[in-house]
Amino acid sequence: MTLADADRDSGAAPFLTVVMPVHCGERWIEPTLKSLAAEATDDVEVLVIDSSPDAGTAEMVRRFGAGLSLELLTRPDLSNWRTKTNFGVEHARGAHVCTLHQDDLWLPGRVAAIRDWIASAPEAALHLAPTTIIDQDGNPLGTWRCPLPAEEAVTPALVLERLLVQNFIAVPSPVFRRDAWLACGGLDLDLWYTADWDLWLKLASRGPVRYHETVTAAFRIHGSSLTVTGSRDSADFEDQMRIVLDRHLSRLSPARAAAVGRVARASIKVNVALAAASSGGLGALGRAACHMLSLGPHGLYRYLRDSRLLERVVPRLRAKLSGAL
C-alpha cells in the first residue's frame, strides 16, 4: 500500500502529514484508523511506520487504504516510537505535521480546526490544544488543558516557564511546523519517557506558540501504556525528568530559573510519588502532599496551575476505580 502515487508524481504536497509509529497494534489501531478515516481529505497524508514482527498490524492498516491517503512503511529495524517518529517526520511531505499513536484518537472536526489554526498563525512553530482523556474502552474521563492564554501568540519564555514545571501537552493534539522539528533535531532517542516533553520545549524556542480552545483529539490511558509501565522503575523515571529539566532550565534568567526550578523539582518528586502510589505504595501519597506543601502558598499556586495535577490524576483514579486501568 502506498500513498496516492499520482499525488507523489504530481508533486502536490498535502497541507498536513500525520505520522503514526506503530508496533503490534492489533488491539487498538482499528478505532484509531476509523477516527482518521472519518476526517479524511485528499490533502492530508497518513504515514504509518510499523515495526511489528508479524503482519497482523499491517493487515489491519491495509483495510483503510481506500479511505485514506495512506502509506504503510514496514521498518522492523526502527525499534521504538522515537526512531519511527523521527523517520516519519523526515519522510513527510506536509509543511505541518502531527503525530498519532496507535491507541489514541482524532475527534470530529479536527482537520477543519487545524486548517483554521494554521491559517490564523502560519508562522507558529507549535499549535497546542486541550485533549480528552479516555479509558481503554473509549469512555471519556476528563479534559486535559494547557495553562496558557488561548487564541493569541504565546512567547517562548512563558511556555518555557510553565512547561518546565510539568509536561502538560498530550501527544495527539499538537501540530508543528516540519522545518522547526528538523531544525531542533527531533526526538532525543535516549529519552524513552520524556522525549516528547523535551521536544515541545525545543519547538517553543523556534517560533510563536498558539494555544487553541477546541478539543480535537483523545488520549487513551490503559494498563499497558508507556505512562503506566515506564513509571514502575522509579529511579529511571525520575532521571528521565531531571535530564529535561536540567537541559532547559538554564535558558531562563538566573532569578526566574531559581523560582521555576524549585517548583519543577518538587513536581518531579510528586510525579515519582504518584507513580509509586499507582503501583500500590499508597504511603507515597503522603510524600506527594509534603512536597507540594513545602512550596508555600505562592509556589503551590504555581505548581497547581502549571502541573494540571487534577486534570491528569482524576481521570486515572476514575479509570482505576472502574477497573479500566
Layout of secondary structure:
Elements: H1 5-10, E1 16-22, H2 29-37, E2 44-50, H3 56-62, E3 69-74, H4 81-91, E4 96-99, E5 105-106, H5 110-120, E6 126-128, E7 131-134, E8 140-144, E9 153-154, H6 156-163, E10 175-177, H7 178-184, H8 195-203, E11 209-211, E12 217-220, H9 226-229, H10 234-249, H11 254-278, H12 284-293, H13 296-307, H14 309-321
Parallel strand pairs: 1-2, 1-4, 2-3, 6-11, 7-12
Antiparallel strand pairs: 4-10, 5-12, 6-10, 7-8, 9-11
Helix pairs in contact: 10-11, 11-12, 11-13
Fold and architecture overview:
The relative contact order is 0.13. This protein is an alpha/beta fold and 325 residues long. Strand 7 (131-134) and strand 8 (140-144) form a beta hairpin. Among the domains are: 1-102, Spore Coat Polysaccharide Biosynthesis Protein SpsA, Chain A (Alpha-Beta Complex); 227-321, no CATH class. The protein contains 14 helices and twelve strands. Residues 1-9 have low confidence and may be disordered. The longest helix is centred in the last third of the chain and has 25 residues, at 254-278.
Largest sheet: spatial strand order: 3-2-1-4-10-6-11-9
The rounded Rg comes to 19 Å
> Quick one: how many beta strands?
12
The major pleated sheet works out as: 8 strands, mixed
Features:
Spore Coat Polysaccharide Biosynthesis Protein SpsA, Chain A; 14 helices; about 15% strand; disordered N terminus
